[in-house]
Amino acid sequence: MYRVFKFGGASIKDASSITNVSKILKSYIEDDLVIVFSAIGKVTNMLEKIVDAYFYNEDDPFALLDDTKQFHLNIVDTLFNEKHSIHSDINNLFVEIEWVIEDKEVNGDYSYIYDQIVSLGEFISTKILSTYLNECGLENNLIDARDLIRTDNTYRNAKVDWQKTTNLINSNIKSKWCITQGFIGCTSENFTTTLGREGSDFTAAILAYALQSKNVVIWKDVPGMMNADPNFFNDSQLIDELSFDEAIELAYYGAKVIHPKTIQPLKKKNIPLYIKSFLNPNGRGTLISNNAPISKLPFYINKRNQILISISDSSLSFIIEKHISKIFKILTKYSTRVNMMQNSAISFSICVDNDKHTITYLIKDLQSSFKIYYNKGVSLYTIRNYDKSSIENIIQNKILLLEQRSRNTIQFVLKD
Ligand code: ASP
Ligand code: MG
Question: How many angstroms is it from 196 CA to the middle of ligand 1?
Fold first, then answer.
């Protein structure tokens, strides 16, 4: 029975981190493993800049591509001797992207080009990792994720064809250790797709689902799932065990440790998910499963850079269904997700991500039919299992703009 491991960008951010991963993997030599890697460090962001440079002529895409190449070659130089064939392998991968951006006429749609360029990060990282691990005596097979994950052609957010994917995975994953790219899929016409930012966790879940694996381990730079982001809360605690249902809720409200799509497939097949630290591989981490005891510990989730928009009818009449339906039509047009909403007699308030690409257009569009007030630079706080003192923790010294509570969950829109 396979176990599925996923290592994210932070765990392989430089040569010494890669060596650390090889040490962790050595202790699993007895296991059958499928290992998923995302791109090295922040490479996906670097590649996104290349796409923007190519599309909007803001920067020189070739110069940016060269920086990205140099970044990888520095790592390769440390891990391998100069005559090793990995150098030309990496060069060849970059040549494919040069071909895409040499096409001066921008043709093709943004999302399609995005996937062709941005997927490079995972093809490079897995090439380096697979080769390096083989050199360390950790024998493995590198398998192209495009031979495993079949999707539709919704570029940048491709939808998985579960039936075909399950068949492909079961016919192509055979050897004791297989390595593949996270985040990447392929259409039936053989075009590369991506599953959405941070999608490598989801890849691990897809593989586990298809293989009915024994468990999944996501290796992170935190000790496990914490009840609050340690960067913002002083007394955050490690969660030993969590149920899938609770994990889905937390991911929905914005807990960043796991990608929201990851949980469902694992829950369906009852496959336990461990979150462990690659900095402390023997630490106990967090176990997410169907059998976790119910926890009453408060969970704090913080979404920053929000905008609170208050929408009313231009003649200040009551907000009724026809207004709400119109508002949602406009939100759908910009694919804007509503993180919190509330209505009163004459206004409807929504809290959404202050997305720099869409928010100005969204507001303009709303203004053509409604009277709009908005507050930028606000944060949305959610507390699961709230009590008096956890609320006090959050709202003290802040301006409260909006509040909503249910039995288990309370949410605040706050200004610092
Ligand atoms: N490399 C991709 C990203 O940064 C996928 C992932 O890391 O999960 O979004
Ligand atoms: Mg990542």
Answer: 8
Q: Where are the domains of the chain?
A: 3-220, 301-415
CATH superfamily assigned to domain 3-220: Acetylglutamate kinase-like (3.40.1160.10)
Report which protein residue has its CA nearest ligand 1's atom 6: 198
- Residues 192-208 have pLDDT tens digits of 999 999 999 999 999 99
Q: What is the model's pLDDT at position 257?
A: 75
> What's the gap in Å between 41 CA and the centre of ligand 1?
9
Q: Are 346 and 373 in contact (CB under 8 A)?
A: no
> pTM score, two decimals?
0.89
Question: Which among 37, 44, 115, 129 is the best mutation to test ligand 1's pocket, defined by most ligand atoms within 8 Å of the CB?
Answer: 44
301-415: which CATH topology? VC0802-like (3.30.2130)
Query: What pLDDT digit, counting tens, does each position of 7-39 carry?
Result: 999 999 999 999 999 999 999 999 999 999 999
Q: What is the distance in A from the centroid of ligand 1 to the CA of 87?
A: 24
Whether the CB of 197 sits within 6 Å of ligand 1: yes
| Residue 126 contacts residue 180 (beta carbons within 8 Å) | yes
d(CA 185, CA 189): 12
Phi/psi at 139 (5° precision): -65, 130
